[in-house]
Design brief:
With 355 residues, this protein is α+β, with helices and mostly antiparallel strands. It has twelve helices and twelve strands. It has two domains: 148 residues, no CATH class; 145 residues, Nucleotidyltransferase, domain 5, CATH 3.30.420. 34% of the residues lie in helices and 16% in strands. The protein binds zinc ion.
C-alpha cells in the first residue's frame, strides 16, 4: 500500500479540501467502505504512524480532516469551504478574513510542544492495552517535566468521552463498588477514604459483556443512584440490581428492575451481580497496575472515563482505531487549564443532574 507522502492541500474553486492521508487510488477503493478504515483513516502500525506524521504540517492536516470532515468551517463567521492556508499553517477564511488555528478550541490549544509529540503521546496511550502512566509517558517522550506528562494524560482523558454517546441497553447489571483509598501523594503518603463507584454493564446472552458506564457517586441513596441509571441506561432496559433500596425509584423512570438478593443463595462465594463485580475487579487491577494506585478521588472520574474508553473498545482488532477515536474527540474537546486539571473540576457526567 502506498504510504502518504508530502501530500499537499488541494485548492479548488469550492474552497479548501483536505487531501486524505492515503493516495487517491486507496480512497476510491474504500470510499464505499464504512469508515474509519485501517491504513486510510488511521495508521495500522508504528511504521505507518511514523511515515504519516513526520512533520507538524502532516499532523495539522490530519487534525483538520478530523475537525472538518466535510470541509473547513470558519469558527468566526460560520462560512463553509473557502479558506486558504497561511505560511504559518493557519486557516484564513475567505469570507471574514479571520484566521484560525486547527488546534484552537481543542485540547491542544495553547501547547508549546510540537503536535508530533502529542501524536506520539496519543499513539503510546492507545497502542498499549492497559494504557500508560505519567512516568512512562514522560520517559518515552523524553519530556523534562513529570507534570507535563501528567497534565497531557489528563487532557487526553477528557477526550475519551464521546459526546452524546448512546446509553446502555438490553439487560444491564448495576452495582456499586468501593475503589482506592490509599494514595502516594506528591507531598508524602496519605490516606483517603475509598470512593464509591457505581458500575453499569450490558449483559449478553448466553454470556459475555457488552459496554460499560461508571461514575463516582457521593453516596448510595436514591438521589445518587437514580441519576446515574438515567444517564447511563436507555429507558425500557432491564436493570439488574441487588435488593438495595437506593434503586427502588428507577422503575418510575421507565426501567424494568430485576432484583437478585445475595443472601438468598446461602453461598458465601455467590455474587449477585457477577458482571458488575468482574468489571470492578478489572478496574481495580488497572488502577493498581498501570497507575500504581496513585489516583486521588477528585481525579477518579477521569480515570473511569479512560477505563470505559478502553473497555468498550477491547475487541477492536486494530489499536490504531483507538488512536483515531482519541484524535477525533481531541479536536472537539475544549482545552482544560492546568488549574482545572489539578482541581479535577468540570467533569461532564459528575455535573450532570437529573432532568
Ligand atoms: Zn470566517
Amino acid at each position: 500500500m502506498t504510504l502518504p507522502q508530502g501530500s499537499n492541500n488541494v485548492f479548488s474553486e469550492g474552497g479548501v479540501r483536505f487531501t486524505p492521508v492515503a493516495s487517491s487510488a486507496i480512497i476510491r477503493r474504500v470510499e464505499n467502505a464504512s469508515h474509519p478504515v485501517a491504513g486510510v483513516d488511521y495508521p495500522r502500525t508504528f511504521e505507518e504512524f511514523d511515515a504519516w506524521f513526520g512533520s507538524e504540517d502532516a499532523c495539522r492536516r490530519y487534525l483538520a480532516r478530523l475537525r472538518w470532515p466535510s470541509g473547513f468551517t470558519c469558527p468566526h463567521c460560520g462560512a463553509r469551504g473557502k479558506a486558504w492556508r497561511t505560511k504559518r499553517g493557519l486557516f484564513h477564511c475567505a469570507s471574514c478574513q479571520g484566521q484560525t488555528s486547527v488546534i484552537a478550541g481543542t485540547i491542544f490549544e495553547g501547547t508549546r510542544k510540537p503536535l508530533r509529540l502529542w501524536f506520539l503521546a496519543m499513539w503510546f496511550v492507545t497502542s498499549q492495552k492497559h494504557g500508560a502512566n505519567a512516568m512512562g509517558l514522560q520517559r518515552v517522550l523524553g519530556l523534562r517535566s513529570y507534570e507535563t506528562a501528567w497534565a497531557w494524560l489528563h487532557k487526553l482523558r477528557r477526550a475519551m468521552v464521546r459526546p452524546r454517546r448512546d446509553r446502555l441497553k438490553g439487560s444491564v447489571e448495576v452495582d456499586e463498588s468501593y475503589v482506592g483509598g490509599e494514595e502516594e501523594g506528591v507531598a508524602g503518603r496519605y490516606t483517603e477514604t475509598k470512593a464509591i463507584v457505581v458500575i453499569a454493564v450490558e449483559m449478553q446472552s448466553p454470556k459475555g459483556f457488552g459496554r460499560v458506564r461508571m461514575q463516582r457517586v457521593s453516596g448510595v441513596s436514591a438521589s445518587d443512584l437514580t441519576p446515574f441509571v438515567c444517564a447511563a441506561v436507555e429507558p425500557g432496559s432491564i436493570v439488574h440490581t441487588d435488593g438495595w433500596s437506593g434503586y427502588n425509584g428507577i422503575t418510575k423512570h421507565g426501567y424494568q428492575r430485576q432484583i437478585t438478593v445475595t443472601s438468598a443463595s446461602g453461598d458465601p462465594a455467590h455474587v449477585a451481580m457477577p458482571g458488575a463485580h468482574r468489571v470492578a475487579a478489572l478496574l481495580k487491577r488497572w488502577l493498581l497496575g498501570t497507575h500504581q494506585g496513585a489516583v486521588s478521588n477528585k481525579h477518579l472520574d477521569y480515570y473511569l472515563d479512560e477505563f470505559t474508553f478502553r473497555f468498550n473498545r477491547r475487541t477492536a482488532r486494530a489499536r490504531g482505531l483507538l488512536f483515531h477515536r482519541l484524535a477525533e474527540q481531541a479536536v472537539t474537546t475544549p482545552r482544560t487549564t492546568y488549574r482545572g486539571i489539578v482541581t479535577g473540576e468540570g467533569h461532564a457526567l459528575a455535573q450532570k443532574s437529573l432532568e
